[in-house]
Amino acid sequence: MPAATRDAEAARVAGLCVQPRLPLAELEGAIREGLMAFSCAAGLVVIAEMMEAERTAIVGPKGRHDPNRVAERNGSTTGSVVLGGRRVPVVRPRATLVGGGEVALDSYAVFSSADLLTQVALERMLAGVATRRHRLVAEPIGETLEAAARGDSRSAVSRRFKTATEAKLAELLGRDLSGLDVGAMMIDGTYFAECCVVVALAITADGTKVPVGLWDGDTENTTVVKDLLADLVARGLACDDGVLFILDGAKALAAGVKRVFGDRAVIQRCTLHKRRNVADYLPKPYAATIDRQLARAFNDADAKRGLRIAERIAAQLEEHYPSAAASLREGLEDMFTVRRLGASDRLARSLYCTNAIESMISVVGRLCDRVTNFKDAKMVRRWVGVGMLEAERSFRRIKGCKDMPALTKAVRAEVARRRSGQTAKANHVAA
Q: Do the beta carbons of residue 190 and residue 375 sit within 8 Å?
């Protein structure tokens, strides 16, 4: 049932004027079992009264002749409502149209909706409650109702969780990005059950972090990245004026970004990944020394000076560790992009590495670690998607967010200069 329709029906049901008569003698056992059990038992009485009140409003008072009546009573039948995170059986009153056909009671539709059960299953699973333990953590509703209740079995919980995660994934992948003022974009890949998932995290011009998409494949290759970015553009991502992309050391990511956005992409490579890559080529004691030197170079507020220091380090490594030197020189200028664009120190520390997206991926990883067997890529996508949205719930704006508008302006100015230079070159060639 669509949310808007459900809310309208709930409002209509809430508007029913009902003064329930609680049979305290019959509820005595529930009272002894505790407040929650009593509330559930009393709730069933209220639900029954509301359904009967709605039927009376449709067919008229019982025992009174009405020649204009459009529907009439037709006894009752069994049904179930959601109470205390379970399905509890009830007796549902029926009404049929004079010309034939049953009248649907809005009150029953609201109380029997499975949406609440689906949401409960999702929240408990995200909190780490295994499917077999949902019955143990459920709210107490009294022995009588417990014996009659259903819907908290392992298979039922699993089905509801699958439904909820499919809806969450559709929500993530269906987000309209046309109104998003994106100043920066982080892209990174991770593996679950031999399935590579590349995820994208947008950072708006005011520093807000927004998960915007994911794409799966066998490896973190250029095609996967290109398809992910093409999907973002199709959903309205506006990058005509230029966007800062923060990437790890994977060449496929940079190649995919350049293929889709061309000169509109301003790339900052992750300095932490670069330091780790260089250290992997060096013996441990020497690696620590070089790492400290690189950290100072990458943290230098003067981008040109930091680049010169890093180049001297590469020259120092050349004689005895040529592979380490080559690794350092690869994409070295892209390590200083945010510094070169004049980002404040606080903002630069947020954007010269991929910590923000890796933090989101760590939340996804903690959720996915609970899965012992991913059946297929669809299941991986569902878990990753819901993990990204779960991480978003605790997001705060990036550090240095107040300086983000100035950096966004600098990025767009650089893209404008690139285009101006290309136009001038084309005109010179034509002349």
A: no
